[in-house]
Write a structure and sequence with these properties.
This protein folds into 3 domains: about 200 residues, 3-Layer(aba) Sandwich (Peroxisomal Thiolase, Chain A, domain 1); about 120 residues, Thiolase/Chalcone synthase (Peroxisomal Thiolase, Chain A, domain 1), CATH 3.40.47.10; about 35 residues, no CATH class. It has 11 helices and 15 strands. A hairpin with a 4-residue loop joins strand 14 and strand 15. The longest helix has 22 residues. It is globular. The two termini are about 25 Å apart.
């Protein structure tokens, strides 16, 4: 049986409202206990982020849903200039922050883009890897001939969970933050890192007749949940034995008082495992496909913080998969950590940068700390 080549022929992105600088953040998110955060400076120093986007006004009114910002990216990527959208057979949408548990994120996006007609829609669940799972489903559908064209998306709307009334006062942790940067990854760090946005890929079994395309060579994923307990979690509480207690097992008052619905991380697990396990998976993926790291022209690692940059760099060297910094392409500083959308946003910016040339190889790396899952992909410019 022969399989189709799969190409990304267009990319798009959408950010709600204007970029927000570090100095403006608390004007949108609010002050905890009416006081400026004492940990903000420390966290921002470590994560390196200068701007991010919020689907909020300064009086904390919501301006966009997750489905709406995703739909904007979809509308842009399917536009063909004559007022009629490009035909697609499949819509595959990944996010970790759907607007509701039911219906699925994907069908809510579909409902906002009715012009694409009745098509198959899927919504992979997860955290940062959700968009890569969406990409892989679309890739496999086009690869096997089940679909000729598809749109895959990654999106997040974190801002509504970052406003001040969601958070307790954690100023007493300032001293710990100064001594151990990983402590900042427990809870409040998310306020100074996460960003809203969406991006979309148009995928086809035919490359562009004019202009560049990105051939999807392969996608590989691996989960270490067989040996690792949960690290990043929401709508649950972590027990002493490492298990998660679901929000459905708490009373209504407990859900509020224990901040059960907020996102949290086990910083000890994060510090010990997120980079080493990602390096193991990357080395295995490259070896499986006979690719040497020296062949890579652009390396696009999704990083939640610049804090991890040198750690990733050193681990690559230790694993004999070194990639020099001049080949890295990241936009964390300018757009923030947009979770599942981050890798799409990097690809979108690079695709439209004018820097690419035929034959360039682009390596994607997406880690997910939830229970230590990773996705990798190789794209070739053609």
């Amino acid at each position: 049986m022969s399989f189709n080549e799969v190409y990304i022929t267009n990319t798009s992105s959408f950010f709600p409202n204007n970029p927000i600088s570090n100095d403006e953040m608390e004007e949108f998110l609010g002050y905890i206990n009416g006081q400026p955060s004492k940990s903000k400076r420390i966290v921002l120093r470590n994560n390196g982020i200068k701007n991010r986007y919020y689907a909020l006004t300064k009086d904390r009114k919501v301006t966009h849903t997750n489905a709406e910002i995703t739909a904007m990216a979809v509308k842009s990527v399917i536009a063909n200039g004559n007022g009629k959208p490009k035909h697609i057979d499949l819509l595959s949408c990944g996010t970790s922050t759907p607007d509701q548990m039911m219906p699925s994120h994907g069908v809510m996006v579909h409902g906002l883009v009715p012009q694409i007609g009745a098509i198959e829609v899927v919504s992979p669940a997860g955290v940062c890897c959700a968009s890569m799972h969406a990409l892989k489903y679309a890739y496999m559908a086009v690869k096997t001939g089940d679909a000729q064209t598809a749109v895959a998306t990654g999106s997040e709307r974190f801002s509504t969970s970052l406003v001040s009334d969601v958070f307790e006062d954690e100023a007493q942790k300032l001293k710990e933050l100064e001594e151990n940067p990983y402590i900042s990854f427990e809870k409040e760090f998310l306020r100074w890192m996460l960003s809203d946005g969406a991006a979309a890929f148009f995928m086809s079994n035919k490359k562009n007749e004019n202009g560049l395309s990105l051939r999807v060579e392969w996608l590989e994923g691996v989960s270490y949940a067989n040996e690792m307990e949960a690290c990043m979690y929401s709508a649950s509480e972590k027990m002493k034995d490492g298990s998660l207690k679901s929000y459905m097992e708490f009373t209504h008052d407990e859900v509020i008082n224990k901040s059960v619905l907020s996102i949290k991380q086990d910083v000890k697990l994060l510090s010990e495992n997120i980079v080493p396990l990602g390096g193991v998976g990357l080395k295995a993926a490259l070896e499986k496909h006979g690719v040497k790291s020296s062949e890579i022209d652009y390396f696009l690692p999704h990083m939640s913080s610049e804090f991890f940059k040198d750690k990733i760099f050193k681990r690559l060297i230790e694993n004999d998969t070194a990639i020099p910094y001049e080949k890295w392409f990241v936009n964390l500083t300018t757009v923030g950590n947009v979770g599942a959308a981050s890798v799409y946003l990097m690809v979108d910016e690079l695709f439209h940068s004018g820097r690419l040339k035929v034959g360039d190889k682009i390596l994607l790396l997406v880690p997910e700390s939830a229970r230590f899952s990773y996705m990798y992909s190789l794209l070739t410019v053609c």
